[in-house]
Design brief:
Number of helices: 8
Oligomer: single chain
Number of domains: 3
Low-confidence stretches: none
Mean pLDDT: 86
CATH topology of the largest domain: Lambda Exonuclease, Chain A
Number of strands: 14
CATH architecture of the largest domain: Alpha-Beta Complex
Order of helices and strands: EHHHHHEEEEEHEEHHEEEEEE
Structural class: alpha+beta
Shape: globular
Length: about 350
Amino acid sequence: MTDWVIVSGAPVRPEFRPPLSYSSFRAMALCPLQFAFGRDRRYAPKASPRARLGSAFHETLAYISTRRVTDTNEAIAFFLSAVENERAAALLNYRERRLPWPKDMREVLENAIALRVLRLKHGREMRVETHIEESIATEDNLLLGRPDEVDDSEEGAIVVEYKTGRYDQNRLPDFEDQVHFYAGLWLEVKGNLPRWGRIEFLADNRFHKFSIDGARSANLVAQARTAAHKLEAGELPIEGHLGDHCSYCDYRPWCEDYWRKHASLKINVECDIEGAVCAQHARDAKSVCLSFSGGHCMIVDKSGYPLPQLPAGAHIRALDLLDGGATKFRTIWSELFTVRDLHGT
């Protein structure tokens, strides 16, 4: 259980240093504490298998670009090798070892890679200069962007961003902001503002195309540069901003602000619970009962792995419990953390 112990009250000691990427800028705006956790190496993030497959996909895009790959088999072989490297890395992270990997997504990404190779060939014939996974760093080294693809032609550039998930109407504004941020950096570094943005959702083969608004790009770059200056000067306050983003934050186990205000006080369909291991109910390697302010909850492991050894009375935080009945929750996607204070009591 040593890997699964949360030390309550430990201060966050992030390494604040530019350059600032869009994802970091976005994290700073949503929650400075989440951003701080992400830059403190003592806190392990929980990358999902889908996210790791996405990382292998983007690494393959970079390989295709730098090697100017024209052989589909070579590109897919590189992708499969990158996937195996991601699997090995996941096994080293105690928060990822038990997560099941989706079987369908790999085929979707293989098909997308084959299309990227064909697009690169076609672009050469059409005199389109394609920049894949090219880093764009501003001259002051405060901001950094890495768009998935920029296709530059005489008719103007288009910034393409690939999303490995399905089309999500609610997230389009944030995705558009990301593309506008890249467009603003492209203008600053390359000297021309892209005309179009395109977001491709690989899971269901849909896309969203829109025109680039120069004022929107300039505003996002200006906001990010202001934030980077604060980082450089050490003026970023470490404080939590609670909101909908908490539900998918990697650092919920350690966030005292979250547990004080957002831990579930009753059994919902899907919830996080803070409580103590119950001494009244029988338990084994496949189940454990937690008592909390809203009652009791039996957690049952359906994944084929034993639950961690949890002694009666231990203070536990359980994340992402999935409903399995009126009083039982299954734990395929959940995590159980023992909580101790700074003195280990």
